[in-house]
Design goal:
The protein has one domain. Strands 1-3-2 form a 3-stranded antiparallel β-sheet, with no helix packed on it. By secondary structure, it is of the alpha+beta class. Helix content is 20%, strand content 11%.
């Protein structure tokens, strides 16, 4: 989930204009890394903005999701 709300926690991944192909058009944008679920392909709504994360930020987002959501270091 992407949001313009500003939360400073271990599940937030901030996205800025340098990370995407086109400017976001907003002052703040974050991904909530703990909100993961299965969604059938036919339920996905096409992105009307046609914007994408660049490769390096996308890899950093996947790492953040893995580290913050699936980490077993504290077990």
């Amino acid at each position: 989930m992407m949001t313009s709300s500003d939360f400073d926690d271990e599940f937030s991944f901030v996205i800025n204009d340098d990370m995407v192909m086109s400017p976001l058009g907003r002052n703040h944008c974050e991904v909530r890394c703990q909100l993961i679920q299965f969604v059938p392909l036919e339920s996905i709504i096409t992105n009307s903005h046609h914007n994408q994360l660049r490769v390096a930020p996308f890899k950093n987002l996947i790492k953040k999701i893995t580290d913050s959501t699936f980490s077993t270091e504290d077990l």
